UniProtKB/TrEMBL annotation:
This is Putative dehydrogenase. SUPFAM superfamilies: Glyceraldehyde-3-phosphate dehydrogenase-like, C-terminal domain (SSF55347), NAD(P)-binding Rossmann-fold domains (SSF51735). Keywords: Oxidoreductase. Belongs to the Gfo/Idh/MocA family.
Amino acid sequence: MTNAEFPRLAIIGCGSIVSHHLLPALLRLGWRPSVLVDPSPERLEAVQALLGRSRAPVAVADWREAADQFDAALVAAPPMLHAPVGQSLLEAGKHVFMEKPLAVALADAERMVQTAEARQRVLAVGLMRRYVNGVRWLKALIDAGQLGRVLRFEAREGFVYNWGISSPAMLRRDGAGGGVLLDTGSHTLDLLLWWFGEAAEVDYSDDSHGGLESDCRLSLTMASGATGTLELSRTRALRNTIRVYGTKGSVEVHLYENQIASDVPQILDFVHDGFSANHIPPQIFGDLFQAELRDFADAIRDGRPAVVGGREALPSTALIERCYANRKPLALPWVDGPAPAAVPRTDGHRTDGPTVVVTGAAGFIGGRLVERLCLEHGAKVRCIVRDIAQAVRLARFPVEIVRADLLDREAIGKAVAGADWVFHCAYDVRSRRQNIDGMTALIDASLANGVESFVHLSTFSVYEPLPDGPLSEETRDGDRAWSYVQNKLDLEAMVLDAARKRGLPGVVLQPSIVYGPFCKPWTNAPAEMLLSGTVVLPQEGGLCNAVYIDDLVDAMIAATRSPRAIGERFVISGPDAPPWAAVFGRFQEALGVDSLRFQPAEAIRKEMKSLRRDIAMVLQDPKKIIQIIVRWRPARRLLQGGFDSLPPRLRHLVMVHYFLKKKTSRNQLWLPDAQKLALYQAKALIDLTKARRLLGYEPRFTFEDGMALTADYLRWAYRDAPRTAPAASAANRPASEDRHPLPASTETTRVGNA
C-alpha cells in the first residue's frame, strides 16, 4: 500500500512510544500521519523532526482543531485519557487504534466497544504480543491438546524500569491509571486469558502504599480448573517466560521473544503456521508494531474487525479492575521491617507530619528515607529527581515527584518553599560543578525559606585510604587526589561554613559501607558479580564497617531533632565490623553459589595492570559500547532511522546478529581495582562516640541482623538470575519452582572490576 492508499491518520499523543516505536513502524509501512496532536510543543517538534520539515503534518494541541483532516487515529496519550479521547473520536466517526490499555475502567472500555460496533468503526488495541510467533505457537499447541489437560502455569515478567517518560503525571494514578499491573499486565494478562480462558478466582497483592505499584503477584484459578501464578515487576529482572504444565508434558515460552523449551520432543516438533519450536522465524519489537498497525489499516480497508479489537481487550480490562478492587498488601519484610527506633523528639509543636524535601530521592538511600518518612512519620515529601523513569519505587507512595536540576535555582527555590526538613542525598559522579553549584543553590533556598533542618549526606570515604585502628571525625582527611574525596570534603565544608556564618541548621553525616535492599554498589553489584563468575578478594583481608540502611535512616531522622548536632559532622556505622570475607560469604550463601576466591594482594595488582584485561573487556562485549551510545537520545534516533532505512536483506542480517543474538557473559573474573583493594585490606574501626553523644544514635542492626533482611531481598530479586558459578550446597540453594528452564548461552572468561 502507498501512503495514498492508507486512511488519513492522526497521531494523538507524541511521547516516547510514538517516537521510538509506532512512528518508525508506520514509516516502514509507508503510512505517514496527516495530523499530530499533543499539548506539548516540544513533543510535537520532536516527532515533526523525525518526519522531516519539508513534509511536516499539521500539528495541533487538540484533535478537534483538525477533525476534518483525518479519518483514523492512533491514540498514544496517557492511559487516563484513553477513554474520553477514544469515545469522542468514535462518536465523531473516526477509526481508532488505541495503545494499551483500552481503558482504565471496564465500563468505559465496554462503552467504546459498543460505540465502535454501532457506528461500524474499527477499534483496535495495541496488544502487540498477540503477534509474537512463539506466543501464537503456544496458543495452537494448547488448543490442539498437545499438552493434554492444562494443570497449572507460572508466569514471571519484570525488568528494572527504564522507559523514557517526560512527565511526573505518568507516575501518578490520575495520569497513568495504574502501575505495573495496568502497564505490563495489560499484555501478560491478555495472553493468559487468551491461552487459558476465563479466570474464576483471583488473589491479588501489590506493593502500593497509596500510589502506583511497582511489584505485584496474582494467584489465579481458571474456569477450566487450571491454577497459576503471575508475578510482575518494575524493580527486578525476572525470567520473562511462562511455564505451562499439562497431563502430557510441560513447556516454557518466552513472553515476547521467540524462545521455547520442553523436555518432551513431540511438543517441540509441533508445527503451527509452518514452523516448529526449533525453527521459529525471528522477530524484533518493530515487527510486532508493524504487524498490528498493518492489520488496523487492512481492517479499515476491508470493512472487518481488527484481529485484536476492542472486544478482545475486555477480559483483561475486567480482570485488572477486579484485582485493584480486591487488593492486598504484598509482604516485603525489608519494607515493613522491625519497629522503628525510639528517637527523642524536639518537634512537639507540630501536630501533623513535617514537609520534607529529599534530593537524590530516586537513589537507594533517598528512596528508603522516603519510605520511612511516609510510613512512620506521616511526612509530606517532595522528591527531587532528574530522571522520572528512576522514580517508580517512589511512586508507590503519595509523594510529590519534582523533576528538577539542582543548577536550576528557580526550580529548587520552589521545591524548598514551605519545607521543614531538607535531606541532600544527591551526588553527580560526572560533574564537580553540578555538585558545588547545586549545593550553593540548595543552601540558599533553605536559608531563604527558613527550614528547620538541613541534613547533608557525605561519606566515610573522605578518610580514604582508611587508616588501621580507630576512625572518628578527628581522623585526618583522605587523599584529595581522588576527585570523589575532594568533592565530598568541599561539600561538607560548604554546609559547615553556612552553619557557622549564615545560620544554616546544617548537619553532615558520613555513612560507612551502606548495604540493604536495592543498594547498587554494596548489595546488587556484589550479588551480580557472584552470580556471573568468580569474585577475587585479597588474602590479607580487612574489616568491613557496614551499616544497614535503616540504621542510617535512624541517624538522618535523629539529625533533624538534635540542636546540638548543628554545625557538626558524624561518622555513621553499624555496631560491628565483620571481615570482608564474611560479608561476601553471606552474600554467596544467600544466593546459593560458591564464587569467592582469594589471592595475595600483589598477585591481584599484577593482574589488574595487565593490558590483556582492557582488551578482553572490549573484545568480549563490543555491544556495550553501542548500548552506552544509544542512551543519548539524538544518537538513538539516528541509529533507529538508519536501521529502518536499510535494505531488507541487510536489515535482516543486522536483526539476527545484533538484536537477536543472545550472548550473556557469565564466566567472569572479578578483580578489585586499586581503591577497592586498599579498602578490602584496611582494618579501620569506626568510633561512634560522637554520634551517640550528640545525636542519640544507637545502631539497631548487627551485620547478621541486617544481612537476614538483605538475604530475603536477594532471594526475591535474583531468583531468576542465571547461576553459572558452582552451587554452594543444596541446603543453601534458593527455593525455586524451576524445572525446565530455557537454555542459557555462555561465553569465555572476561575480566572485570570487583
